[in-house]
Prior knowledge:
Chain A has strands at residues 5-7, 10-13, 19-24, 31-37, 43-50, 53-56, 65-68, 75-79, 88-95, 104-105, 109-113.
Amino acid sequence: NAGVMQNPRHLVRRRGQEARLRCSPMKGHSHVYWYRQLPEEGLKFMVYLQKENIIDESGMPKERFSAEFPKEGPSILRIQQVVRGDSAAYFCASSPPRGKYEQYFGPGTRLTVT
Amino acid sequence: GQQVMQIPQYQHVQEGEDFTTYCNSSTTLSNIQWYKQRPGGHPVFLIQLVKSGEVKKQKRLTFQFGEAKKNSSLHITATQTTDVGTYFCAPYMDSNYQLIWGAGTKLIIKP
């Protein structure tokens, strides 16, 4: 059973470009969470999605950031017009439906904005 | 919103010494999870505690959930270099089906 997959692992973008981060949850998992982590800091919740639904996006900036989890295909975190402050590690985690289950994390995407 | 305080932020130990990190909440928790993140890696689930006063062990790691379900601790006996990393506590919130993450305690082994 493959774990949570994220790609790309490393992404370099110039200021003003768009960044698209992909996350494929574990098989059978329908809940996806996106987190952001700056060096030497903790995890900051961004958004919680289920298939075709955004459940909670309270941690996501209202401008330039969007997320989706379509019926088919991976979850996408999209950052438009990136700025240097967007440089961070972005982790995706998935969990099974229903119940208080643990989250399984992907390896993360390290975004660098130059 | 709900927050959890995790202390200390860093702990430097000699290899072979013990390590403890504490997680405190102002409200009663339904359950709490613990994760470990190695340097350059991603968080990995360690354990979940649910019952008041629960104690669980994994080899040299001992996890406790307080009687009032407002605090938790992770104790590592005789640390090894493989224990290096940041340990996060993460209570589960029934209200929004999410984990609330502590700031983490970084375990550093002195050379």
